[in-house]
Specification:
Distance between the termini: 28 Å
Strand order of the largest sheet: 7-6-8-9-10-11-13-12
Number of strands: 13
Largest sheet: 8 strands, mixed
């Protein structure tokens, strides 16, 4: 088991605080394993086994306690006597009205609670209603490039960094596919299963979507347009061209459901001159490159969009708020902000001529502040800064501790 240190450190800083610790993220991204790592850390601190209760709620073992009252009573009867009990609830959304049960446990007993979940129930209004001010959320992502390298080094064999980056860009970061050297077909079989279980269990079944084919066509449209701006009306027009009628509200509802299941992430545009977030023509990024390739197949011409995608996800992992920077006559790929820090990032797969170089670097000329500006690329280039702009290989940026 490879320690995912950054997540464990963040969670452990809230041990014995009066907050429910909620780990959310797409299916199979490693939430359950991180929960186990937190358990192990507690034992290292001297917490006894009888003080730790673990419920893996997607198991049939717990089918008879899947409502709030039954669940509450089962947990209550197993609490440690005269000592704090540490409660670990894996896939808590399987319990109906789980928020009520968790809130009551927090109120009635000396407990410290950690939960995981994989779908929209983890972002629902019920959490705010019943746990207002009493929970801390931790968004868990598939493996970062750095974590991927640790997995490869321990589980299989590690190649040269650029070679491994190309592999990561194609196969993504779901931990299960890096436990051994799977073929491309085997990788995408595993990932397609993750996709299907999320789409059909967490979204279609839970939301009672009747027009499944229509919904899947919207998913494929989004995946095929990763890194491009589009609107709900653009999707509606696309479906109309295929003789399928849908209104904008329904499209927006479907996109929201995909976000709630952590399949896609919405990236708003930010007007760099007007200093405001624009709520139209957003970009979307997928939770992991392998999800897109598992559904649409791998195409070399999609690499540029996937470069944006992995950088976007890395910025989210590090706690940045990320937007597309908008000028009157152009865009900066990303404006990333975290407290007093800000980064401007432009991503280019390769820069073949002076005109392209001028365009990619020149986009920063309208920005007058002194925050770091990066051009990230994957071709050969002379290192160093140009007019204060830092040039890096995308892989080096992902592994850097300088931002």
């Amino acid at each position: 088991m490879i320690l995912r240190q950054s997540y464990v450190d963040k969670i452990m800083s809230y041990v014995n605080t009066p907050f429910v610790k909620i780990l959310s993220g797409v299916r199979r991204c490693g939430k359950s394993t991180i929960l186990k790592m937190v358990e192990d850390k507690l034992r290292e601190r001297g917490i006894k086994d009888e003080q730790i209760l673990v419920y893996q709620l997607d198991s049939m073992k717990y089918d008879d306690i899947k409502n709030a009252s039954l669940f509450y009573n089962d947990v209550r009867n197993r609490l440690a006597n005269d000592r704090k009990t540490y409660l670990f609830f894996d896939e808590i959304q399987e319990v109906e009205e789980w928020e009520k049960a968790v809130n009551s446990l927090m109120t009635d007993f000396d407990v410290d609670i950690y939960v995981t979940g994989s779908n929209s129930r983890m972002l629902s209004s019920e959490i705010s209603t019943y746990l207002t001010g009493r929970y801390i959320s931790f968004r868990i992502f598939p493996l970062s490039f750095s974590e991927y390298l640790m997995f490869r080094e321990t589980r299989t064999s590690l190649g040269e960094t650029r070679q491994e980056f190309a592999r990561y860009l194609r196969y993504g970061g779901f931990p299960a596919i890096h436990l051994q050297d799977y073929s491309a077909d085997e990788v995408y079989t595993i990932v397609k299963d993750i996709y299907n279980s999320t789409i059909f269990t967490d979204i279609v079944k839970r939301n009672q979507i009747r027009k499944v084919d229509q919904f899947e066509r919207i998913v494929r449209f989004v995946f095929d347009n990763i890194g491009r701006t589009f609107s709900a009306s653009a999707i509606a027009k696309y479906l109309k061209s295929e003789h399928r009628t849908i209104d904008n509200e329904t499209v927006m509802g479907y996109l929201a459901k995909l976000e709630s299941a952590f399949i896609i992430h919405r990236c708003f545009r930010y007007d760099l001159q007007g200093k405001e977030i624009l709520k139209t023509q957003e970009k979307f990024y997928v939770c992991d490159p392998a999800i897109k390739y598992g559904v649409l197949g791998y195409r070399p011409d999609s690499v540029a969009a996937m470069l944006e995608n992995v950088v976007y996800l890395e910025l989210l992992r590090r706690g940045y708020d990320v937007n597309v920077g908008l000028f009157a006559d152009g865009e900066i790929d990303f404006v990333a902000s975290k407290q007093e820090n800000k980064l401007y990032i432009q991503i280019a797969q390769l820069i073949q001529d002076v005109r392209t170089k001028s365009r990619e670097y020149g986009r920063f000329s309208m920005i007058k502040d002194n925050y770091p500006k990066y051009v990230l690329r994957t071709d050969e280039f002379a290192g160093g800064n140009q007019d204060g702009i830092i040039t890096m290989h995308v892989a080096d940026f992902l592994l850097s501790n300088e931002y």
